[in-house]
Amino acid sequence: MRGTNPYVGYARMDALHALQEPRTDSPFEMSFILISQVKELLFRMVHLEVDEARSRLREDRPEAARRALARAVRSQRVLIGCWESMNALTVDEFLVFRDVLGEASGTQSFMYRLLEFTLGNRNTAMVRSSDFDAFPELRAELDRPSLYDEVLRFLARTGLPVPEQLTTRDPSTPYEPSDEVEKVWLTVHRDPEAHRVLYDLAEQLLEVAYQFSHWRAAHLLVVERMLGGKRGSGGSDGAAWLRTVNEHRFFPELWTMRSAL
Ligand code: HEM
Question: How far away, in angstroms, is 219 Cα from ligand 1 center?
Fold first, then answer.
C-alpha cells in the first residue's frame, strides 16, 4: 500500500522524503539538496502554465493564455525567493561540500532546459546528446512551436503583418529577432485601447521574461558570493559565462521596441 496515511499516500510524501542523499555529514549539504529540489519542482510549475498558455493561444483564447502566464509569474517569484534561502549559506559552509558535487551543474537540469525551450530559447548547444536520450521530452519539445512561435501565429491571425516565414518557420531552430515583429508590437503599444487584449498579453509576456531574467541575475550574484571568479562545476568560466547568459532576453522585440516608443 502506498504511504502510511491518506495525506502521505496521496502525494507520495514518503517517496519525496526519501529523495535526499547527501554525500557528506554537513547539514548545509542537506539544505542545498532540498532547495535545489524545490527549485526543480517550481521550474515544472512554471512549465505547466507556460504550456497551458501556449495551448490556449492555439485555440485563440488570449485571455485564458494571459491568466496562465499570470500564474506562471507567481511561481517565478517564489523561485526568485528561493535564493534567499540559498544565501543563508556562507562561503565556508558551501565549500565544505562543494567538492562532492563533482561535475554536477544546473546546466544539466532537464526541466530548466525544457522551460527555456518551451518559452522560445532553443539553444541546443548546452544539451548533450545523452541528455536528449535520457529525457525524450526535450527533443519532442524542439519539434513543437514554442510559446513565442504561437504568439506570433496568433498575432498574424488577428490580421497584424507578421511575416509568413516566421509563422511557418522550423520550430527546432533558434529564433532570430525581426524588425517586422518589432513594428507589430509598436503598433499594439502605440494604441493600447485599440489593441487591449494584445497589449495585455504582451505586458504579461514581458513580465514572464522579466522574472526569468531576474532569476538569472540573482543566481549570478549567488555564484559570485560563493565562487568569486572560480570555474563552475559544469566546466564553464563560472560567473563570467553566466554574465553572458544574463544578456539573453525572452520575446526580444518586446524589449527592443521600447526604444522606439
Ligand atoms: C551555491 C549555489 C550555486 C552555485 C555556486 C552555482 C553555480 C553555477 C555555475 C558556476 C553555473 C555555470 C555552469 C557551470 O560551469 O557549472 C551554474 C549554472 C546553472 N545553475 Fe547554478 N549554482 C548554484 C545553485 C543553483 C541552484 C540551487 C539551481 C537551481 C536548481 C541552479 C541552477 C542552475 C542552472 C539552471 C544553470 C544553467 C544556466 C543556463 O544554462 O543558462 N544553480 N550554476
Answer: 7
Q: Which of 91, 219, 233 to mutate for ligand 1's pocket (most ligand atoms within 8 Å of CB)?
A: 219
pTM beyond 0.90 = yes
Structural fold of domain 27-260: Methane Monooxygenase Hydroxylase; Chain G, domain 1 (1.20.58)
pLDDT of 3 over the 90 cut? no
**Sequence-ordered list of residues with C-beta below 8 angstroms from that of 254, at least 6 positions apart, any chain:** 185, 202, 205, 206, 209
Alpha-carbon span 5 to 93, nearest angstrom: 37
User: What is the average pLDDT score of the chain?
Assistant: 96
Residue 42 near residue 34 (C-beta atoms within 8 A): no
Task: Report the separation in Å between the CA atom of 57 and the middle of ligand 1, taken as the mean of its atom positions.
Answer: 32
Domain ranges, ordered by start, for the chain: 27-260
From atom 4 of ligand 1, which residue's Cα is the shortest distance away? 223
C-alpha cell at 194: 485599440
Query: CA-to-CA distance for 88 and 103, rounded, in angstroms?
Result: 23
**111 has a pLDDT exceeding 90:** yes
Distance 107 CA to ligand 1 centre (A): 6
Handedness of CA 49, 55, 61, 62 (dihedral sign): positive
Question: Pick from 218, 50, 202, 49: which is nearest to 121 by CA?
Answer: 50
Contact 176, 149 (CB under 8 A): no
